[in-house]
Amino acid sequence: MKPNKHKATHSAEREFGGALGATCIPVFLPLTVLYLLSVCRSPAASVLQWPPPLPPAAHLWDPLAAVLIVGWITLQSFLYLLPIGKVAEGLVLRDGSRLKYAINGFHTLSITAVLLLVCLWLGMPLGYLFELILPLAVCAIGVSYLLSMYLYIRSFWAPQHALSLGGNTGNPLYDFFMGRELNPRIGDFDLKYFCELRPGLIGWVVINLGMLMKEVELRGSPSLAMLLVNGFQLLYVTDALWNEEAVLTTMDIVHDGFGFMLAFGDLAWVPFTYGLQAMFLVVHPQSLSTLGAAGIILLNGIGYYIFRKSNSQKNQFRRDPTHKSVSQLETIATATGKRLLVSGWWGFVRHPNYLGDLLMALAWSLPCGMLHILPYFYVIYFTILLIQREARDEKQCRAKYGLAWDTYCRRVPYRIIPYIY
Ligand code: NDP
C-alpha cells in the first residue's frame, strides 16, 4: 500500500496547547514521573525542597527492570490473546465497519493474581519493586516513546478513514503526540485497546502490592493506611476490568488517535504516579484511627457508588434505551436521533461519573495524613484532568448535538459539583 503522506481533509482545532504543548509535554511529563518518585522516597517528601532529591544517573538504570518490563508486557499480551471471555463489537467506524474486541480483562487480572500468589508463595521478593521503581519507570517511559514512534511511522500506511480526526494536522510533533491512527492493529491485536486497561492498570496494583510487601519487610505487617490504599485502588482497577466493555464507548477509544499521549499515559503515567500514596507510606508510615479509617472507607464507598451507578446508567441507556432500568428516565431529543438523559444521575450534574471519581481520589490520599501535599498529587492532577476532559467533551457534544446540548445545559446547569462547578 502507498503511504498516506497528506493530512486529513478537515481542519482540526488543536488541543493541549497545540504544537508547543505537544513538544513540551513529552519532555516535561516523563521528567515529572521521575521527580515525583524521587521526592516520594526522600525523607522530607517535600515538593518544595531545594535542591530537589534527584537520583544519580546510575540509579536510573537496571537491566533487571528492562527484563521485568518486557516480560510483563509479553505476559499481558499473551493473556490478552487467550481465547477466553467474550468478544464485543466497538462503535461503528467512519467506513461503516465495526471492530471486534476481546473482553477478557477481568480474566487477565484473575490469572495475573494467581500467578503473583504462586510467585509470592515461592518466595519472590515483591518488595524489591520499591528499590527498582526508578529504573522500572525509566524503562516504561522508554517503551512508550518507542511505541509512539512505531505508531507514528506505521500510520502513514493506514487508509484515510482509519486516521483520527484530531491527530492529522500535518505538524509531525503534534500528530506524534495526539496519535494519527485511530485503532492501530497487528492482525487482531488492537494496540490501543490492549494498552488502555492492561499492562499499566494491572501493573499499578502490582506495584502497590510490592509497596505493601516492602512495608511488611520493614515493619513486620502492613499498616491500616497501606491496606486502605491497596484495597481502594484494587477495587478501582477490578471495576474497570469487570466493566471492560464500557471502555469501547469512551473518548480514548472512539475519538482519540493512538499516539504518545495515550501510550505514555497508559504505560508510564498511570502505573507510576497513580499509586504514589503506597510508595509514600513505605517511607512515611501513618497511624490511622478506626474512626478516621471508617470515614475514609465511607467516602470511598460514596464515590464508588456515584461513579458506578452513573456510568452504568449511561452505558445501559446508550446500549438499550428501552431497558426497564432507564426507560422511565426523562430525556430530550437531538437532531442526531440519539437522546440525552436529563433526569437520574445525568440530571444531577452533567458529569456525575467525574464527581464520584474525584471523591474516590480524595479517599485514596487521606490515609497518608495531612502533613504532605505529595500523596494528594493524584487528586490535584485528576481534578485538573477531569476539568479539561469535561471541557473537551462539552465541546464535542455541543458540536454533535447543537441546540439540544444547550437545552441540556440549561436544564442541568452544573458540570461536576452541584452548586459549585
Ligand atoms: P463519559 O463516560 O463521561 O462520557 C461522555 C459522553 O457521554 C459524551 O460524549 C456523550 O456521548 C455521553 N453523554 C453526555 N451526557 C449525556 C447525557 N445527559 N445523556 C446521555 N449521554 C450523555 O466519558 P469519559 O471517557 O470521560 O469517562 C468515563 C469514566 O472514566 C468516568 O467515570 C471518568 O471519571 C473515568 N476516567 C478515569 C480516568 C483516570 O485516569 N482514572 C481518565 C478518564 C476518565 P454520546 O452522546 O456520543 O454517547
UniProtKB/TrEMBL annotation:
Belongs to the ERG4/ERG24 family. Gene3D superfamilies: 1.20.120.1630. Pathway: Steroid biosynthesis; cholesterol biosynthesis. This is Delta(14)-sterol reductase TM7SF2. Catalyzes the reduction of the C14-unsaturated bond of lanosterol, as part of the metabolic pathway leading to cholesterol biosynthesis. The keyword Cell inner membrane does not apply. Keywords: Cholesterol biosynthesis, Cholesterol metabolism, Endoplasmic reticulum, Lipid biosynthesis, Lipid metabolism, Membrane, Oxidoreductase, Steroid biosynthesis, Steroid metabolism, Sterol biosynthesis, Sterol metabolism, Transmembrane, Transmembrane helix. Its EC number is 1.3.1.70.
